Amino acid sequence: MSGPVMPAAGPPDVIEIRGIRGFGRHGVFDHERAEGQEFVVDVRLELDTRKAAATDDLADTVNYGVVAEQVHAAIENDPVDLIETLAQRIADLCLADRRVSGTAVTIHKPSAPIKVPFDDVVLTVQRRAGESS
User: Which parts of the sequence belong to the Dihydroneopterin aldolase/epimerase domain (predicted)?
Assistant: First the structure.
């Protein structure tokens, strides 16, 4: 006789924070570093929220207000050349919370130095907990 049947793991629950805006000096060109520009970041956090739902306690989930503040600080501090580097930095901070099993980070650079009409430059990285960066 076997033990109780455990339900199959389903898709993760998701918290998304969209449109975190900050003024950064990221870019490879001198004018990008000197003048700066707006960056917009969306983050997706994958986690299991069942414990938080059962306890109704913020301590049992990810505080998305804190995550938003950390992302904002990453946008506005420590300039890097590439948005790929910025995206990885933000993914690492999202995965620092042990409850987050995966993340997607989208960086929007609507004022990128492109000489033709365009709407936006967008990079999305997806990372899983336990993967090395």
Answer: 15-127
